[in-house]
Design goal:
Elements (H helix, E strand, L loop, with lengths): L2 H20 L5 E2 L13 E2 L4 E7 L5 H11 L4 E7 L6 E4 L1 H9 L5
Parallel strand pairs: 3-4
Antiparallel strand pairs: 1-2, 4-5
């Protein structure tokens, strides 16, 4: 991964953390160690959710969700993603989404 790509990723993580804070959540980037920890979300701020952040022009939802699922432990895997000049989107498993909105699963 090039330095430019790493910097774009860091900017994306900062943007998502700021977005969470704008809605009253304690959003912040986590320490990243070349992606080798396997258990750290890119951003924390929503209890019970493992948040991966992807700031890419080419969308690879399947690959990104697989990473989030692999790394999430007992948390709900969530991917925040966006392309340049587009709004942030959030991807999560439909079952998790429905459990959250019906109150069956607390985050």
């Amino acid at each position: 991964m090039s330095k430019t790509q790493r910097e774009k990723g860091k900017r994306g993580e900062r943007e998502v953390a700021a977005l969470l804070r704008r809605y009253g959540l304690a959003g912040r980037r986590t320490a990243q160690y070349c992606g080798n920890t396997g258990d750290a979300s890119d951003v924390v701020g929503i209890d019970g959710m493992h948040i991966e952040v992807k700031r890419c022009e080419r969308t690879e939802i399947g690959k990104w969700m697989a990473q989030a699922v692999h790394d999430c432990g007992d948390n709900v895997p969530v991917v925040f993603h966006r392309r340049s000049r587009e709004a942030w989107l959030v991807t999560l498993n439909a079952e998790d989404f429905l459990k959250i909105i019906t109150g069956e699963k607390q985050c």
